[in-house]
Amino acid sequence: MPHSKRDGRTANNRSFRADRRAIEGLPVRLVIALVVGVASLSVMMGMIGDIEGLSATELDAQPQPEVTTPGDQSLDVAVLDPDGSRVADATVIVRSGSAQIDGVATGTTNEDGMATVDVDPELGPNQPDGTLTVEVKPPAEGDYVDERGNTEVLVVAE
Fold this sequence. Notes:
By secondary structure, this protein is α+β, with helices and mostly antiparallel strands. The chain is 29% helix and 30% strand.
C-alpha cells in the first residue's frame, strides 16, 4: 500500500514547523494591527469630542480677593467659560481647605456672572496661612462642567 498521502502531509508539517517566518510574523502583524487600531480609535474619539452638543464646557471660578485675612468678609466670585464670558445662575461653593470656615458658604451668580459669598475664615494656632477651596455647580441649562480645580483663596495671618 502506498503511503504517499500520509508521507505528503508529514513532509508538509515538517516544512511548516521548520519555517520560522510563520511563527515570527504573526506577533509582528498583531502588534501592527493593534497600533493602527488604537491610532484610528483616538482619531475617531477626537472627532466625537469636537462635535457640538457632545462636549461639555469647563467653567472656571475667579475669586476676588485671592489673598485675604481671617475674619468676616465677602468674596466676589466671577464664573467664566473658556471664552471668558461670564455665566449666570451658577452656584459658587466655598469650603474649608487648610483654613477653616463654619460649614459651607454658597452664592449664586447674577446675570453678570458674579456671586458674593460671605465667609469668616479662621487659621489654627501657629498657622501662618491656609486656603479656602472654591467650586462651581454649573447652571441646569447648558452643558457646563467644573471638573478642574479652581483658584483657591489664600488666607494669611495679619
